[in-house]
Amino acid sequence: MARAGERAQGLDRRSVMMGAVACCAVGNAAYAGPEDALPQKGDRLVIGDGAKAGQPVTLEGLPVGGELVEAVAVDAQGVKREGSRFAKIILVRVAPDEVAESQRAHAVDGVLALSAICTHQGCTISGWSHETKRLSCFCHHSEFLPAEGGRVAKGPARKRLPVLPLAKGEGGTLMVAGGFTAKPGPGPA
Ligand code: FES
């Protein structure tokens, strides 16, 4: 039978181990900072890559008929939300009357923001045709309709691309008006 001193030592060892587990769990939870969060209401948008990376996204820089632009959300403290690839945003612009009525509240003057992550197997979407108004994924050639809420125009993807609601900021800049309309990334229809 264990003596009182040995029992006390055993309890102490268990206490230390449980304390270590609690410490690390707390540490891991605290590690997810604002840079790891998805875009949120009130964030501003900056250009995500190329020579103008970090500059504010403006309506002037997104002409109708122009190229797809990658963007990053930045919080009020200036933290870029680029810790998770699911936070990646793509912007395209169409004529305002080409935006489906159901989507007009999410668009600004024909500018539409969507998740950049293909809902088939998670590749980054980089193709945009102003003629067909379709975004395309070069991994397996899925196509999406940004002006129709990211609806799938051509598979194998089955789930629409989540939309990021936009608002107009000062000086023609673009802001985030709310979170993605669905969880970004691959998933069932
Ligand atoms: S990952 Fe985009 S079509 Fe397959």
Description:
It is built from one helix and ten strands; from the N terminus they run αββββββββββ. The chain has 189 residues and is α+β, with helices and mostly antiparallel strands. The chain has two domains: 4-31; 35-176, Rieske Iron-sulfur Protein. Strand 5 and strand 6 form a beta hairpin. The protein is globular and about 40 Å long. It starts with a helix and ends in a 13-residue tail after the last strand. FE2/S2 (inorganic) cluster is lined by residues 118, 120-123, 137, 139-140, 142, 156-157. Residues 109-175 form the Rieske domain. GO terms for molecular function: 2 iron, 2 sulfur cluster binding; metal ion binding. It comes from Methylobacterium nonmethylotrophicum.
Residue runs with pLDDT of under 50 for 5 or more positions: 1-30
Strand order of the largest sheet: 1-2-3-4
Q: In total, how many beta strands?
A: 10
CATH topology of the largest domain: Rieske Iron-sulfur Protein
Give the second-level CATH assignment, the architecture of the largest domain. Answer: 3-layer Sandwich
Helix content: 10-25%
The H/E string reads: HEEEEEEEEEE
Provide a brief overview of the structure:
By secondary structure, this protein is α+β, with helices and mostly antiparallel strands. The chain is 15% helix and 21% strand.
Task: Compile the SSE list and pairings.
Elements: H1 4-31, E1 44-47, E2 69-74, E3 89-93, E4 111-115, E5 127-129, E6 134-136, E7 143-145, E8 151-154, E9 166-168, E10 174-176
Antiparallel strand pairs: 1-2, 2-3, 3-4, 5-6, 6-7, 7-8, 9-10
The site of FE2/S2 (inorganic) cluster has 11 residues, from loops.
